Amino acid sequence: KTMICLSNERNTLYKKFESKIVHNPSLDRTLVSFQANKNAPFSSWFKYREGFSEKLVTYVIEKCNLEPGILLDPFSGVGSSLFAAATLGWQTIGIELLPVGCFATEARIIITKN
Fold first, then answer.
1. Maximum CA pair distance of the chain?
2. What does DSSP assign to residue 39?
3. Which of 42, 96, 106, 112 fits as disulfide partner to 76, beta carbons 3.0 to 4.6 Å?
4. What are phi and psi of 54, to 5 degrees?
5. Using CB atoms within 10 A of its CB, is residue 28 exposed (0-12), middle (13-18) or buried (19+)?
């Protein structure tokens, strides 16, 4: 019964926003998930399922023609957005509560400094 209710709610929301939904073939499953990081330097050594690819952050920044500034990621995970933006000249600030995310980010900072 719960699944039927959720399905109905999903359909209602889809119909409400259908005219605003745009399919972008540049955004595939690999790009919007952590899968694209599998072959990326530094990112490939630690799989973080909850994350997304650094290429996605780069894509959004470049597609929106954003000038470098300060990027705040309040749920930074292993730092994908932080490192991608920093590569493009941004100052970055990340907040992460999970020790594994903090560890992975700190390890990458140490590696990239050396």
1. 56
2. G
3. 96
4. -65, -30
5. exposed
Per-residue pLDDT tens over the stretch 74-111: 999 999 999 999 999 999 999 999 999 999 999 999 98
The listed range with the strongest mean pLDDT (3-7, 14-18, 28-32, 88-92) is 88-92
List beta partners, residue 92: 71
- pLDDT of 34 reads 80
CA atoms of 75 and 73, how far apart (whole Å)? 5
- Contact present, 90 and 54 (Cβ < 8 Å): no
Burial letters 8-18, b for 16+ CB under 10 A, else e: eeeeeeeeeee
Return phi, psi of residue 93, to 5°.
Answer: -130, 130
